[in-house]
Specification:
572 residues, alpha/beta, ABC transporter transmembrane region fold, Rossmann fold, 2 domains, four-stranded antiparallel beta sheet, 19 helices, 60% helix, elongated
């Protein structure tokens, strides 16, 4: 149960609504039990009054009670559902926000090995499973124990032996049934959670990779994997349904046995004299009392499923980020001076160093190109500058202040990154651009789009044009231009370009580079590339290989030096 404690603590922010829901649930169940009990007594008492010709029998008061309890049961059930579900949904919304806030600082470190579908499953399905704690566990337990003492006390008032007997039976079942059905449902609940995750992963792989799968003729194989995962999930759910049916059958059987016992005791204690309608009251109260026990077995049957989801969520919630920021750190603003001193870095779990004693220095307004073949450590260095990772040794300073002493918001405001991959969200063009500058007006956005030659996107719906999942309606060049538009909007003093023109045709590449260099006239620029374009506009060029800087100088100096840089040009 330790896994559930962090989520139980979150109930304190919504305790009023949750406990009001429990109160309404108790009133509803009390009305249902009272309705059945009073109805049974009323019918029996009316029959006895007719047989014994009792002329002064009060029909009106019990009839009004039956109608009153019936109305209270219906209205109470509706209000209880509204209140309890509203509070639970608010709680789950807060939990999703809390989970996302914990997840974001872990990127790319702690969750590098998790699949996108797995993270999505934790954010959606595993968080949804937490409603079990309140709706199926806490609320039914509170109502059950209060109800057991209530109905036992009522029968104790009529006849002590009847109240004590029914109370003992109900208490025994309310303790024994949860233990029994928790152990019966535990393996299947864990299996359901795991198979849901597996199904979501395989299904997402199959859907997202349709184009490539069709090209290579592998769509059928991936669909078969998805169907197999679905069969495993259905099998686990079928087993859990059988256990649910078994619990209902056991409760009905025990209800009948308890009813026989209570009738026998009532017949022995309440039949001295004329026929006593209280026997019918005891019988119907016994039948109705099992409504208190019914939800508890199901709650503990599915508890293992909730615990498994809680464990998966806690893997994220309790993880420590690789790069922790100080909320009271340096607030900025930044000028754009970068100093990299003897930096060494290896990715977690890797013995080979990605960077070896790298040292660089860029003053405000200076332009530097970092050249080298794929895998030589260029992008790794960029990730260290943005503090996606911290170096294993050495230091990186921004304006003379170590990066780890910067406040995260100030560091993000100081750096603009244009990378090979431009993430387009399934949203309007306006919102995709405002990621870089939330306060931007529509006029600013339109002006930026004209600068990057994307004004044609405004022809139909303007800035409300929907870009679709991952920007699928857009071409590669259009996606890159949206990335450039974001960089222009962000307007930070330090501009990091990580092969921004990779995969583009020569004309588009020249246009994008010209636009970027025009924008970055007074900015500090680190241009990472493995292609020999735009290098003559750089103040300095550094050549990297195997995580080390092997050459450094101006474009003309290195070209005439006959080293690695010169060899690159000779191969063209």
């Amino acid at each position: 149960m330790h896994d559930l404690i962090p989520f139980l603590k979150m109930y304190k922010d919504h305790w009023k609504g949750l406990f009001f829901g429990i109160f309404l649930s108790f009133l509803t169940l009390a009305s249902a039990i009272s309705l059945l009990t009073l109805s049974g007594w009323f019918i029996a008492a009316s029959a006895v009054a007719g047989v014994l010709a009792i002329s002064n029998f009060n029909f009106m008061l019990p009839a009004a009670g039956v109608r009153g309890f019936s109305i209270a049961r219906t209205a109470g059930r509706w209000f209880e559902r509204v209140v309890s579900h509203n509070s639970t949904f608010k709680l789950l919304a807060d939990l999703r926000i809390f989970f996302f806030e914990k997840l974001t600082p872990l990127i790319p470190g702690k969750i590098a090995n998790l699949r996108d579908a797995d993270i999505l499953n934790r954010l959606v399905a595993d968080v949804d499973a937490m409603d079990h704690l309140y709706l199926r566990l806490i609320s039914p337990l509170f109502v059950a124990f209060i109800g057991i003492f209530g109905i036992s006390g009522f029968l104790y008032w009529i006849e002590p032996l009847l109240g004590l007997t029914l109370g003992a039976v109900l208490l025994f079942l309310s303790v024994g049934f949860p233990v029994l059905f928790y152990h019966l449902g535990r393996p299947h609940g864990e299996e359901i959670t795991q198979e849901k995750t597996h199904l979501r992963i395989t299904l997402l792989d199959w859907l997202q990779g349709q184009a490539e799968l069709q090209i290579f003729g592998a769509s059928g194989r991936f669909r078969a994997k998805t169907e197999e995962a679905e069969k495993k999930l259905l099998k686990a759910q079928r087993k859990m349904a059988c256990i649910s049916a078994f619990s209902v059958a056991m409760l009905l059987t025990l209800n009948g046995m308890t009813l026989i016992l209570m009738l026998w005791l009532a017949a022995d204690t309440l039949t001295q004299g004329p026929p006593n309608p209280l026997i019918a009251l005891v019988a119907f109260a016994t039948i109705a009392s099992f409504e208190l026990i019914m939800p508890i077995s199901g709650a503990f049957q599915f508890l293992s499923q909730t615990r498994t989801s809680a464990t998966r969520l806690n893997e994220i919630l309790e993880a420590k980020p690789e790069t922790a920021f100080d909320s009271k750190g340096h607030p900025g603003p930044a000028k754009g001076n970068i100093q990299i001193k003897n930096v060494r870095f290896a990715y977690p779990g890797m013995q080979k160093m990605a960077l070896h004693d790298v040292s660089l220095s860029l003053q405000k307004g200076e332009k530097m190109a970092l050249l080298g073949r794929t895998g030589c450590g260029k992008s790794t260095l960029l990730q260290l500058i943005t503090r996606a990772w911290d170096p294993c040794a050495g230091s990186i300073h921004l304006d003379g202040i170590p990066l780890h002493q910067w406040r995260e918001s100030a560091l993000r405001q100081a750096i603009t990154v244009v990378s090979q991959r431009v993430d387009i969200f399934n949203d309007a063009l306006r919102n995709n651009l405002r990621l870089a500058k939330p306060t931007a007006t529509d006029e600013e956005l339109i002006e930026i789009l004209e600068k990057v030659n994307l004004s044609h996107l405004l022809e139909k719906s303007g800035l409300d044009v929907w870009l679709g999942d991952a920007g699928r309606p857009l071409s590669g060049g259009e996606r890159r231009r949206i990335g450039i538009a974001r960089a222009l909007l962000h307007d930070a003093p330090l501009l990091l370009l990580d092969e921004p023109t990779e995969g583009l045709d020569m004309k588009t590449e020249q246009e994008i580079l010209a636009l970027l260099f025009e924008h970055a006239k007074e900015k500090t620029v680190l241009f990472i590339t493995h292609r020999l374009v735009g290098l003559n506009k750089m103040d300095r060029v550094c050549v990297m290989d195997e995580g080390e800087i092997i050459e450094q100088g101006t474009h003309e100096t290195l070209k005439n030096a006959g080293g690695q840089y010169a060899q690159f040009f000779q191969r063209i």
